[in-house]
Amino acid sequence: MNMVDPGYLLNGSLSQQKVYKALRELRVFERLRHFDPVLAGTFPLDLAGPESDLDILCEVDDHDHFKKAVTAFFDQEKSFNIKEKLIKGKAVIIARFQYIDLPFEIFGQDVPVIHQDAYRHLLVEKHLLQHQLKGSEPTLKALKQKGKSTEEAFAFLLKMEGDPYEGLIALGKELGLYS
Which H or E run contains 97? Predict the structure, then answer.
């Protein structure tokens, strides 16, 4: 799985192929190329359920420019909205919209994508699926259907104590996936 080029989705499951087609039709990666976009979340891992959205992570150093660009590219899409908020004391921009029956979330932060928590969660979860939790996809999907987030489902299977989001970040460091 190449995290930067979503072409791997073309050879994936039917839902991954549908996502690839939507990303191509909307020209998401082409339009957002100046913001180093990366698809994160459940679709790259093929753990998406009916409530899953496409999480596009972006590095943003000029929030006004990013908001204007995202609005110009996607404001004609169903249910488009964009807002700015603080997460862990950092300003982020989140744009949401619907394309076909796929909910999109474009997340912009003044942090390189490879250092964003959602990207690091993806790296850890991918590693776990390839090693410690190989074959556990049906269980993870079942946990998600019961209302757990992806991170909570992984933490549950790992019998991880405390905050699952921070726990996965710490585990990634322990595994040497990033510093």
Answer: strand 90-99
